[in-house]
């Protein structure tokens, strides 16, 4: 139900913008919902990276503060993750969901940070 895209291979220090769409959610459901990006690195557990409330209050994991920015477009039912100054440790499959993980996990999008 939630479709993440935009991943790829990037060099350390580079940038990527991830997108998440929720085509089956109606706008009145999506707009007030706190949405989040998660990631799961190799051999690691899935972790919360960033979240954004319906009023666009944001918070971030300490590991990405100052480098990642989450945003949303309610009219298109999309959530974005702008990632800058990427590090090899950011390598992971990135997923979106709401902040209570209520939706089925999609395939995610793979981000590989490597020279």
Low-confidence stretches: none
Biggest sheet overview: 6 strands, mixed
Number of beta strands: 10
What class do helices, strands and sheet pairing give? mainly beta
Mean pLDDT: 96
Distance between the termini: 33 Å
Oligomer: single chain
- What fraction of the residues are assigned to beta strands by DSSP? 35-45%
SS field, number of helical segments = 1
Task: Label this structure with key terms.
single chain; 115 residues; mainly beta; six-stranded mixed beta sheet; four-stranded antiparallel beta sheet; 10 strands
Structure described in brief:
The protein is mainly beta.
Describe this entry's structure for a reader:
The protein is mainly beta and 115 residues long. 3% of the residues lie in helices and 44% in strands. The protein is built from one helix and ten strands; from the N terminus they run βββαβββββββ. Strands 2-10-9-4-5-6 form a six-stranded mixed sheet, with no helix packed on it. Strand 4 and strand 5 form a beta hairpin. The chain is globular, with a radius of gyration of 13 Å. The termini are far apart. The model has no long low-confidence stretch (mean pLDDT 96).
């Amino acid at each position: 139900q939630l479709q993440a895209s935009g991943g790829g291979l990037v060099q350390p220090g580079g940038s990527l913008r991830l997108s998440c769409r929720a085509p089956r959610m109606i706008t009145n459901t999506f707009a007030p919902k706190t949405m989040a990006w998660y990631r799961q690195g190799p051999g690691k557990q899935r972790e919360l990276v960033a979240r954004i409330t319906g009023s666009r209050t944001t918070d971030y994991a300490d590991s990405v503060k100052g480098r990642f920015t989450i945003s949303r477009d309610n009219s298109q039912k999309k959530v974005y993750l702008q990632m800058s100054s990427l590090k090899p440790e950011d390598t992971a499959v990135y997923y979106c969901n709401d902040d209570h993980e209520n939706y089925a996990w999609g395939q995610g999008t793979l981000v590989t940070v490597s020279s």
